[in-house]
C-alpha cells in the first residue's frame, strides 16, 4: 500500500474511532441523567418455557429502581474505561426484536439488554476502553508499517453495553437458565430482526467467565454479506438481578477476533458492585 494512501486511511480511521468514542460515551452522564427506569414486565417471549436453574431458588426480592441504579457501573468503576448511561438511541424495545427460531429469542434479548418476563427495573450503561496513547510522530513522518499500525490502533476500541435487570422471586434464575438453554439450542446460528433490520448470527460458542451466583459467556459470530465479526455476550446473576454484557471491537472484526476477549475487567467491576 502506498504511504500516502495508508496515511489518509489512518487519518480517516482516527476520525471514525473518535466518533465511536463519542457515540459509545455520548449517553447521559452518570450525574445528570435520570435513574434506572421501571420495566413493565419485560419481554414475554422466550422465558415462559425456561428450564430450572441450577442455582437455589430463594424467592429473591427485586432491587428497587434506586437500588439498581446504585449497583450500576459509574465513571471510575472500571480502570482504563469510560462509563456512561445509555441514551434513547441505544434502546430497542422488546417488540422490535424477533428471531427466525423462537427458542433463540432470549439470546437476542440479552444482546440488546431487554429483560424477560418478571423484571421490575432496568438500567443500562455503555462502557468503552480508553483510546491508546497517540503516536509520537505525525502520520506524514511514518513509514508504511507505522502508518498501518496507527490504522489498526485507531479501530482497537472495545465497546460494551451493560444491562442490569432486577427480577422478583424466581424470575431471575429462570431468565438466566432460559438464556443458557437458548445459547446451547442456537449454537448453529439464527437470524434476528432488530428494528426491521436483519442480523445473521452464524455460530455461538461457549467461553469461560466467573462471577456472581452463576455466570456464562459466549462468542457470537455475525455474518454481514460475507464479512464476519465476533461479539462477546456475558450473563451474570446475583440473587434476583441478571446482568448482561454485549461487547464488540472493530479491530477484532478486521482480524477475525483473534485478540478480542471477554471484557473481564467490566464483568468483574459489575460483579463487585452487585455484591
Automatic annotation (TrEMBL):
Domain of life: Bacteria
Signal peptide: 1-24
Residues covered by region (Disordered): 28-64
Annotated keywords: Signal
Sequence ranges of Low complexity compositional bias: 41-58
Protein name: Lipoprotein
